[in-house]
Every structure is written in C-alpha cells, then in structure tokens.
Amino acid sequence: MDNRRLLPIIVISIIALIVLIALSSSIFFTIQANERAVLFKKFSGGLDKENVISPGFHVKAPWNDLITFDVAETKAEETMDVLDKNGLSIKVDVSVRFYPKFDRIGFIYERFRLGYINTLVIPEVRSTVRQVMGRFTAEEIYSTKRPEVEAAIRNETAAVLGNDTNNVEMTALLIRSINLPDKIKQAIENKLQQEQEALAYQFRLDKEKSEAERKRIAAEGEAQANKIVNSSLTPNLLKMRGIEATLKLAESNNAKIVVIGQGDEGLPLILGNN
Questions:
Q1: Torsions phi, psi of 9, nearest 5?
Q2: How far apart are CA 54 and CA 33, in angstroms?
C-alpha cells in the first residue's frame, strides 16, 4: 500500500488514541464495594434513577455524569436541648446509625443531593426526639419510662426515614445520655429513693403479716390436733393400750418387774428392769 495512503490512517489512529486516553477518566470508571452509582444522561432523559450501578468496572458515554453514593452504614451523633411535657429543658445526646437504600439512591439524590445526612437524617432525628420527649415528663424520661421513650423515638424515626419518600434505612438509635438541671435531677433521685424505701418497708410489713398468719394457722392446727387426740383417749382405750404394752414386755428377753393392776385405772405398773 502507498505510504501516502497510510499516512492519514496513522494520523487518525494517533488522534483517536490521544482522545481516548484524554477521555478515559470520563469513559471508564470503577465502583467500590461500599458504593453504588447512577448516571445523569444529559442528552437522553436526565437522571436515570431506576438503573443503579453495582460495584465493579464499567464504561459510560463521556458526556454523562456519574453520581456515586457511599452506601456503607454511617453514624451521626447529636446533642440537643428539648422540652419535656411540662416545659422543662432537658439536654439529650443521641446516636443514630443508618445507610441509604441501595436501589433508591437515585431518588435520594433527586430530592436531597449527596448531602442527605444534613438535609434529611439529622433534622428528622432531631424533630422526632423533640416530639416524643414532649409527651413525657422529665422524671419519666430520666427514670421510670426511659426504655419506652427510647423505643418510641427509635420506631418513629425509622418509620419517617424509611418511607418511600426518604428511602433511608435506620439500623439503630440510642440515647447516650440525658442531662437534667441539678436541682431537678436531685429532686427526682430523692423521690425515687423515698419510693424505694417505702416499697421496702411495705415488703417487710407484708412479710411479717404473712409470718404471723402462718404461725396462727399452725397454732390452730396444733390445737385442733390436740383436741382430737384428747377426745380419743378414753379409759377403755388406755386400758387396751396398757394390756398391749404388758404383752410386749412379757415377750422381751430382759427381766422386768411388772405389778399388774397397781397403776392408775388398773394399768400395769413397771417398777424397774435389768
């Protein structure tokens, strides 16, 4: 082939190679294990929310924009001041763990962009904590109903974040600490201590009453038994028992001195034995 004919082909190939190298970062991409991605197609439909790109090596048109989401579980911690049922200010520390639903990252991006944590998760957590704690008193939040308060915050936050609009999966929500004003905290602790002392005192009273009732029943039973035994010990029965005892003594190999008819009611009188 004529070199003059090959020259344009070589030049075009070199230009194509240079262009390919220059655009390689816009054409080839890799999604890591903790990531998912969607494309924004400028010339064919905009944001492709339905087709989520999984981990691995991929190719795209250079004019399409790649939007990558970190879908690993994330933790956020918040400290906030809330009001209880009676308007008392309480400081609460809360931790929440969550991740975006893998197959819904396009919808999350459409509404919140990549900053969904600050625009969605944290505001919803703060709002729910305030709403739930506003239904309880400081004493209930601090002591008597703390598990119930935590459960309500956890369930209501998970429901809000996980609905079809927000598409965030919450895995845990913990109340790390609840701080009350010192005077209120001391008053609650004193009240709880007094209640515990009252319960302990009532327990001792109930125990003593139960023991007294047990002794009364035992005494009545013993008295009834003695009454039955005494009523059954007639003179004839005693004579019969005496005769039976005499017969058994007669059968014994040991020497006995028995005077018949000398005891009370004519019962045998045992004087001694060897």
A1: -65, -45
A2: 8
